[in-house]
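Sequence in, structure out. First:
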Amino acid sequence: MSVSPDPNPRPVTPDDLRFMDAALALAFARLGQTAPNPAVGCVIVQGRRAIAAAATAAGGRPHAETQALEAAGAAARGARVYVTLEPCAHYGQTPPCAAALIAAGAAEGIIACGDPDPRGAGRGTAMLREAGITVIDGVRRAEAETLNAGFFTRIATGRPLVVQDGRPGLFDADLEIGPDESFEQALDRLGRAGMTRLRGPAGRATGR
C-alpha cells in the first residue's frame, strides 16, 4: 500500500533498489522472531556506502530504525535511511521511530510500504515530510508487502496468516488447535496473543 498519493520527489535509482534489497534481506532473516511486531529491516547510507544496518530485535523491540541510528551515531545526519515498513508514529513502549529519524537529522527516508496499523498509518511519513525530510515511497513495495503479509493479515482481521511451509524458522509458531476449539477459534486465540505467521497443517492453506 502507498503511504502517500503524492509522486516521489525524485526518481528511484539502482542504489535505492540495492540498499532496499539489503534491508528486505535483514527483515526476512527475522521472520518468526518478532511477534507481535513486524520484522523490519533498516539500512543507513552516506553517499554510496552503508554505514549502519539493523533488523527488528527478537520479541519485537528495539525496532530496526532505532538500532541502526544508534550504530550510525552522528554519521546519520544528512544520511539516506532505507526501511522496509513506514516508521512508526505512535508512542507505545518506545518513542516513535519517525521522531528518532527526525532527531538524528536524516536527509531522506526511503520506504518500501506503508504501515497498516491504525495508530500510525500514514503518520510516520507525514512526520518526516513536515520535518523537511525527503520521502521516497514504494521502493520494492510488492516484496515488502509479501514479507509483511502475516502482520498485515493480523491488523486487518485480528487473525494470523496460516501458510503451509517446510521451514519452521519463518513462523511465529505451528498452528495447534485445542481439543475443544474450532479452527477459527484457534486463530482468534492466537491473534489475540499477537501471532502474525503460523505454519499450518497439511490440507489447510490459509488462516482467513
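Second:
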Amino acid sequence: MSPYLRARLMVSLLVVVVVVSLYSLFSMPTRLKDRDAPQVKEVAVTKPSAPKEPVIPIEEGKPPVPLSQLKGKIVILDFWATWCGPCKTSMPEIDEVYLKYRDKGVIIAGVSVDKEDARSRYVIIRKSVHYPTVMALDIPGLLDFFDITSLPSVYVFDTNGKRVASIGGYRPGWLEDVVTDLLKKKP
C-alpha cells in the first residue's frame, strides 16, 4: 500500500471516529433525559382572539359583526384570492347581486384568503366591487369556521343564521338563484 493511500485511509478513519464520538456525546444526554422525563399530555390551546362564531365585515372600516347579530338578513360570504382567475370572474356577478338585493336585506362580504405579500394586489381588486371585503389575515380565526377546499367558495346563510347553501368554484347564475329563493321564503 502506498504511503499516500495509507494517509488518506487514516484521515478517513479519523473523521469517522470523530463524527461517531460527537454524535454519541451530544445525543446521549438527550436520550437519557427523554427516558426519565414524565409523560406530558397534549392540551388543546385556543387562540385568545379567535371569535366563537363567524364574524362578518358588513361595512368598510368598521369591525366585523358576529353572524348571530345579523338575524333577519341573508348573509353571503365570498372567499377569494387575488391569484384566482375564477374568483376575479365571479366578482362582477356577485357585485351585481349585492347592488340589486342589498336594500332587501342581503349582506354580501368578500374575504380574501391571500397571504400578507399580496395585500397591494388585494387593495386594487377590492376597489372594483361595491360590497365590503377584508383579508382573512385581519380577522383571526375566521377561516376556522369554514371548510374551504376550492376558490372561489361562497357560503350563504338564511335569516336565522343557518348555512343553507355553499359552492366551491364559480357557476354563473347560481348565487342569484339562491338569493331569490331565500327572498321568497323571507317573512
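Remark: The chain has four helices and seven strands.
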